Batch of 3 targets.
Target 1
Amino acid sequence: MLGLALSACGASTAERQAAESPVADAAEAPQDDASDAVTAALDEVSGRYDGAQLSLAAYDVAAGRSYAYHPDTWSYEASVVKIPIALSVLRQAKEQGGRLGDHQKDLMSQSVVYSDNAATQQLFLGLGDTQRSVTGDLPGSAADTSGITDYQDPQAAEVLNTTYEKLGVRRTRSQGSWGDDRTWAQDQVQIMRGIAEGVDWVEADDLDYLRSLMTPDDSSQNWGGGVMSGKEVVGRKVTDVSVKNGWLPEDTGAWHITSSAVVTVGEDAKAA
């Protein structure tokens, strides 16, 4: 399971937001002895690009080992938020005794596979309308934002933030919208652990559907964690990759680039 955050702007430190963690906190797992070599390699990569800020967090699910590089460097969520939004839709469906409708599945597919922003916006706004969240009766289609008049939705943000809390995410929070909030690599690891290990507040079949969408097949998803598909790690083949990438430019021309993934090596060894 891999939580990776890349930022092309200056680093920033924010206060940690305490939250109970039903998913064990990756930051509390012991560091591996090989971390010095990884740090040296990342230092070398960072040195190639003047002004770039790199942060990386990883957690080996099978071994219970974690690694963090510049954990206080933040990036904007951009499109990686589409996974917790999808998890929020799935959570609402289970809580209200419903299942995903065909329209919701179409929106989720467009949002996750092709990183479609209009589809994501409809899913997000649907979180603030519980009837629409269950029935999938959202305005417009994945390519149409007609009927959506307000990008800000405090109620939807509250639902999303509850999902973050359930995942054990400590610092990342929606301030009323999606995509333009800060995130940290260790928070992304917590989200990916939910994808890898499962959560009891989402139906197993629905979570499997979300995993099936997180493929590195589309060109928007075959970089970052997506490059691990088909590779070998210490002589063992990578058998599966679930990934979500995101990117967001600033007015200055700087880019925030983020990639989060679950990488399965061999039969069942997963790293986040």
Target 2
Amino acid sequence: MDHSSNQLLPLETLRAFDAAARTGSFSAAAERLNLTHGAISRQIAKLEDWLGLKVFERNARGVTLTNEGNRLHLRTTEAFALI
């Protein structure tokens, strides 16, 4: 996706990412945030499109962070601690 430095992701996208990273599951993240699985999946797709890389490996048991996803999760955890 073509984006400039002044275009930020919506906070709900980062919240969905954080919840999925913490729970290891889009379904559990959806339950935690009172959203649907589809809503979480769309937010993660938006994030991956915006970044131009995968942040999760998907499998039958849930999701695990990629190396890039781990780095992003460290940053989002720091950012959420400041908010």
Target 3
Amino acid sequence: MNATEDFKQFATLEEEQLPVAKHRLHDWTHFAGLYAAEHVAATEFVIGATFVALGAKTMDIVLGLLIGNILAVLSWRFITSPIAVDTRLSLYTYLNKIAGDSMTKLYNWANVIIFSVISAAMITVSSTAVRFAFDIPAQLNWYPTNVWFILIVLAVGIVVVSIALYGFNAVSEFSGICAPWLFVMFTSGAMVLLPALSLDVLDKTLPAGWADFLTLGDQSIWTGINSDGAPGIGLVEVIGFGWAANTITHFGLIDMALL
């Protein structure tokens, strides 16, 4: 087979079926922007409230999330990264090569369902923040009870989908703008509430040290008692949550598309 025939074979392939060329590689800022995109919906506010409702303890949350996230990073490092760097293909192309079209289509449809649910949940979380500006009551049922909230969800969804339609580069750039001030909001929210909580529990406006912080958390936030008044989850469950939260991206190799 000569060079001309080789070129004809490559010409019939789609770009994603070929290893990524060196001139198409991005720097670390693009990488950071893509991962910051996960925080744009500010789901951390919901996750924090979930741990309160499940009755986790302060130290279990600190150690559990630390260990769980380390395990997630190691899973990503030793499972996803080697395969992605060696093949330089998206998971869909890689799966098509080893399992064929039928398995790829099945996997695609499974991802459509999974990511539709995840996206809907994250858009709803973002819309919940917007509702405060319009004095819309909290939506506590599994279905919406306010027409204006539905309209807000649709509007937020249109913005999110419009950005996503432009691809990973647009998502990365948008996240690079939003992520920094979102982290400021997370920090500011804690700083605003800290004096009031500290005064109520410790009789002073600020914790004096780590021991005071643990006391504050155990007595007023993460008490170890769930919403039903029973003992809550422990360290193992928190580790599992931290590790499994993004299992689909590291064990599931979805992040091969990003790498």
